[in-house]
């Protein structure tokens, strides 16, 4: 890999949106965070006829983890709730341009997992069977099939692959822009540069009304939704609600244009190392973990990370070793103890909802989670039962592990 230009450019997510509004004194619902979750929840609540919805966003819409995502959209999960959410999300994204009038650059070249040990092959074989029962086309691949589909992969040390042709990737900030614009058209107020600093419930926890304290003043409301991604834990603490979400830094590098055909290249993941690559415009997008995990809110790039990435490229996709780095960025995953999301209403604080902890795969789930959370908040039965994602599981049924985490 050639030496990088150390640009820290990240996509501009504010785009065409005029989100500057004064903070109202009252709302029916306050949504904290305008990432893909907050934007989709607001849109779906407004679609259900809820009025006086306000999103408070510390920065600008999409500026959190959503704009840092690799844009991967896949249905290959081990947990059937996640498969259902992902499949619904993908359906929304396939129709996004028609329904929301925004081109999200969806590329549907599939997701290819590369597997190098028997335990993973057994687990993926079971998961693929579950995905097939749920109507997906995913399948296990032999090494010959892997080599045919992804000739740039060094198959040495691999045993098999898993592939779903319908998976792919798209542009996260375009999805946020689509949801925010549609939400605003339906009357939602989006207040940017508005940071939540606490809650005032007058010492009572037995009623729905609360006051959300922000740097622009208080706003009282009936319902609150924490959709603050990696920052959800501290916001839960402000309300006395335990949301076990921990930030974990991840980085991405986008290359200069490449001179070979990437038009059929799948989103390719070396599962045991979490190294991945997919086409991005006329170049490639690469990602992998830091050599040593950084469990903090530090989202600055690590100068050593490119050397770690270069080792993965050399080991698994040596043919891509000559690409030149163009720019890159770091962002935060929002990890939970079992790598499954937290979705529900806090039993200790009626009216206090949460949708967070998506553990690095929340972008693809956002469109479906928006719908599900809006259903929960308006007393409707969602298309999939997400009761198992309630945070109470840690004290009752225990961890509910999602295995396919990158
Ligand atoms: C490098 C990287 C690659 C990724 N790749 C993928 C991928 O390929 N596919 C995938 O599905 N997912 C991916 N993810 C994960 C994905 O980005 C997240 O799961 C998803 O974006 C979470 O969306 P969100 O709306 O919950 O959070 P966010 O997008 O982080 O939004 C939360 C918002 O809350 C705001 N906020 C925080 N604190 C406050 C406060 N006190 N007051 C007001 N507002 C506040 C933040 O500014 C932010 O805008 C990736 C993440 C990273 C970092």
TrEMBL record:
EC number(s): the record gives 1.5.3.1
Question: Where do the FAD dependent oxidoreductase domain residues begin and end?
Answer: 29-376
Highest taxon above the source species:
Bacteria
Extract the Pfam families matched here.
DAO
Gene3D superfamilies for this protein = D-Amino Acid Oxidase, subunit A, domain 2, FAD/NAD(P)-binding domain
Please give the GO cellular component terms listed in this UniProt entry. Answer: cytoplasm
Name a GO molecular-function annotation.
sarcosine oxidase activity
Q: Which UniProt keywords apply?
A: Oxidoreductase
* Protein name in the entry: Sarcosine oxidase subunit beta
The species this protein belongs to is Brevibacterium iodinum ATCC 49514
């Amino acid at each position: 890999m050639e030496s990088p230009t150390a640009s820290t450019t990240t996509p501009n997510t504010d785009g065409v949106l005029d989100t500057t509004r004064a903070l109202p004194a009252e709302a029916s619902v306050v949504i904290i965070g305008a990432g893909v979750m907050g934007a989709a929840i607001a849109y779906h609540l407004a679609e259900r006829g809820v009025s006086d919805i306000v999103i408070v966003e510390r920065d600008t819409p999409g500026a959190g983890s959503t704009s840092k995502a690799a844009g991967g959209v896949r249905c290959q999960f081990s947990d059937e709730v996640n498969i259902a959410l992902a499949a619904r999300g993908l359906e929304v994204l396939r129709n996004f341009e028609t329904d929301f009038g925004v081109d999200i650059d969806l590329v549907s070249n599939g997701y290819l997992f590369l597997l190098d040990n028997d335990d993973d092959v057994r687990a993926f074989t079971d998961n693929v069977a579950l995905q097939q029962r749920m109507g997906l086309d995913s399948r296990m691949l032999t090494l010959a099939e892997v080599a045919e589909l992804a000739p740039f992969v060094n198959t040495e040390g691999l045993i098999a692959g898993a592939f779903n042709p319908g998976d792919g990737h798209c542009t996260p900030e375009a999805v946020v822009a689509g949801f925010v614009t549609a939400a605003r058209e339906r009357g939602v107020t989006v207040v940017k540069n508005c940071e939540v600093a606490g809650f005032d419930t007058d010492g009572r926890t037995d009623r729905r009304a609360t006051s959300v304290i922000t740097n622009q003043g208080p706003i009282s409301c009936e319902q609150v939704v924490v959709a603050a991604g990696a920052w959800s834990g501290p916001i839960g603490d402000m309300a006395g609600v335990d949301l076990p979400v921990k930030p974990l830094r991840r980085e991405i590098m986008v290359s200069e244009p490449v001179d070979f055909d990437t038009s059929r290249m799948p989103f390719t993941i070396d599962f045991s190392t979490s190294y991945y690559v997919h086409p991005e415009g006329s170049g490639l997008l690469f990602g992998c973990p830091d050599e040593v995990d950084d469990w903090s809110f530090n989202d600055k790039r690590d100068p050593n990370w490119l050397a770690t990435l270069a080792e993965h490229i050399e080991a698994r996709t040596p043919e891509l070793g000559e690409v030149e780095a163009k720019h890159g960025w770091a962002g935060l995953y929002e990890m939970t103890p079992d790598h499954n999301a937290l979705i529900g209403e806090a039993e200790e604080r009626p009216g206090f909802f949460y949708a967070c902890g998506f553990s690095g795969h929340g972008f693809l789930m956002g469109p479906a989670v928006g719908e599900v959370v809006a259903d929960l908040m308006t007393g409707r039965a969602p298309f999939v039962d997400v009761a198992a994602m309630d945070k109470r599981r840690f004290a009752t049924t225990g961890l509910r592990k999602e295995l396919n985490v990158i």
